[in-house]
Amino acid sequence: MKNQRKMAMLAAAMIEDFPELVSGYVIDARIDSLQLKGNVFKAFGYRNGACLVTTEIMQITHFSPDRWMVKTLDDDFFVIASFARGGRQSVENLAEKFEAARLSHSRWHLH
After folding, report:
1. What is the tally of structural domains in the chain?
2. Cα–Cα distance between 43 and 52 in angstroms, integer?
3. Alpha-carbon dihedral of residues 78, 56, 3, 7, nearest 10 degrees?
4. Domain of 18, in residue numbers
5. What proportions of the chain, in percent to the nearest 5, are helix, strand and coil?
6. CA dist., res. 61 & res. 67, Å (int)
7. Is 21 in a helix, a strand, or coil?
8. Strand 57-64, strand 67-72: pairing
9. Residues 25-40, buried b or exposed e (16+ Cβ, 10 A)?
10. What DSSP letter does each residue of 44-87 carry, written as one string?
11. What is the full per-residue pLDDT of the chain (111 aa) written as tens digits?
12. In whole angstroms, what is the distance from residue 55 CA to residue 72 CA?
């Protein structure tokens, strides 16, 4: 069972408006080998709280101070509601790599 704080963060993410159709909301999120991992909620084909491992991340968007969004190779759009231990750092590190690649005119980019 997830703690109340994480569930409150999940609920807060679910009531926000996003520029794209959300494929799911992720708690305990982290990046590992260019994949988003965590527990997913409100995602088609997954039961709430199921473990998620996405396809390759193609885009990371820092939507607000507490909200990151991830777009995958399969064109899925996940919203990160909370991070696992070290998860925020893993997302920020990948975002920095995407930004450096964007500046060098690579296909990777950060919005």
Report:
1. 1
2. 10
3. 0
4. 4-110
5. 25, 35, 40
6. 9
7. coil
8. antiparallel
9. bbbbbbbeeebbbbbb
10. TTS-TTEEEE-S-EEEEEEEETTEEEEEETT--EEEE--B-TTH
11. 468 999 999 999 999 999 999 999 999 999 999 999 999 999 999 999 999 999 999 999 998 888 999 999 999 999 999 999 999 999 999 999 888 888 887 765 544
12. 6
Tokens in use for 39?
């527990």
Spatial contact of 24 and 36, defined as CB atoms under 8 Å apart: no
- Residues pairing with 64 in the sheet: 67
Q: Which residue has the tokens 């794209």?
A: 20
Length reported for the chain: 111
- Quickly tell me which residue has 């885009």 as its tokens: 59
pTM for this model (two decimals): 0.89
Structural element, H or E, at residue 39? strand 35-41
- What residues contact residue 60 under an 8 Å CB cut-off, 6+ apart? 68, 69, 70, 71, 91, 94, 95, 98, 110, 111
Tokens of 56: 């390759």
